[in-house]
Amino acid sequence: MNTYMIRRRSAWKTASELEMAADRSKRVGNEEMPDRVRWIRSYVVEEEDGQLGTVCIYQAVDTGALREHAERAGLQADEITPIAQTVVVRKDPAEGG
Q: Which CATH number do you get for residue 39?
């Protein structure tokens, strides 16, 4: 599998909308496409328009699988970018830290 970054811009108005989308995404990935798509992590960002967006890290067999996953889960996928390499300077900070 290859690693990709998916940008979903201004996709949700509220945190509860985002949570429902995350539940759908997990279900589709884990139950319907486990051998083709793996959700690794997401960073929730506050967009300039006040809505919520995400920067998501996925592993997948190809971009077609990611687009299929997004469609099945009812998610947008504004940008899908292959990740060439990961450089970790520090671990992600703990919540509230």
A: 3.30.70.3090
Site of tokens 């949570």 = 19
| Alpha-carbon gap, residue 70 to 24, rounded angstroms | 10
Q: Model pTM?
A: 0.90
3-state helix, strand, coil in the chain (%, to 5): 30, 35, 35
Instruction: Give every strand in the sheet of 79-82, ordered side by side.
Output: 37-46, 52-60, 2-12, 79-82
Predicted confidence at residue 30, as pLDDT, reads: 96
Q: What is the mean pLDDT of residues 7-12?
A: 96
Containing domain of residue 34, as a range?
A: 2-82
